[in-house]
Amino acid sequence: MVSHQRLLVVATSVSHHPNDQLEALPTVDAIDARLGRPKRVALDHGDCSLTQLEGLPSRGLERYLATGRQAHYRSWKVWWAALTDPPAADASPKLKLASKLKTDEGQAFSRLRKCTVEPVMGIIKQTIGFRQFSLRGWKNVEGEWSLLCLALNLKRLHSLIGV
Fold first, then answer.
1. Whole-angstrom distance, CA of residue 47 vs CA of residue 120
2. Which of these, 37, 39, 55, lies nearest to 47 by C-alpha position?
3. The pLDDT of residue 80
4. Is 59 helix (H, G, I), strand (E, B) or coil?
5. pLDDT of residue 69
6. What is the longest distance spanned by two Cα atoms in the chain?
7. Which residues pair with 2 in a beta bridge?
8. Which of 10, 32, 74, 105 has its CB surrounded by the most CB atoms within 10 Å?
9. What's the first-to-final CA gap in the chain, in angstroms?
10. pLDDT exceeds cutoff 90 at 6
């Protein structure tokens, strides 16, 4: 998890799952209580699952979770299409979320994810030069990833305080 305001990694987790459909909840739970709880989270399509849809609100989080992939180049008709009516009260959580993401607020907050998480991953890969884990074993990989995120946070704090 990355903080939108400062681009600092606030929680880490490692898994061997091929997608992130089960990863948001353990990562949210890993946020240290001294940092406080976020009020809302922006997640991409890879995180969309029924477990996440139900689990995030139970933890008091407002979710902005992409329910499908977006084309890179959408036609002008899509951009200028009128918003549809809000879904019915008994609609599925996925349908409600898709409707919420079409609002101006939903789109604005979801766009933040692209300029929050993606730069952090780019810095880890390009600036720090991390391409693969050097250690083997679950605990060792978790430790290596935590150390990498710590190095990123120290680099970021160095920039933030202007040293």
1. 18
2. 55
3. 64
4. coil
5. 61
6. 54
7. 9
8. 10
9. 25
10. no
